[in-house]
What we know:
Elements: H1 8-13, E1 21-24, E2 28-32, E3 42-46, H2 58-61, H3 64-73
Antiparallel strand pairs: 1-2, 2-3
Amino acid sequence: MNLDSTCLFxxxxxxxxxxxxxxESTHLLAFLDINPLAxxxxxIIPKHHAPTLLQVPDSYLTEVGVFAKRIAATFGEGAQFNxxxxxxxxxxxxxxx
Length: 97
């Protein structure tokens, strides 16, 4: 695990900052956003510090779809939701992790 002690998300991963954890594995953490755009707004992040998606090792990304499906399933059949990946400031990425 590669973490940066100055990164907000790395501090959440290391329990320095509390969060409402939804799902967790060796490589990923899913938790509720503190400023949700909608009820249930959940972030899925790698437990590896990388400013953009292109810098995250593939092994950390293999479960992302499975996590998204498991979380979406908690809302029930017929639920409507978005699955987004914001990469860079122009794409509204707020935390460089």
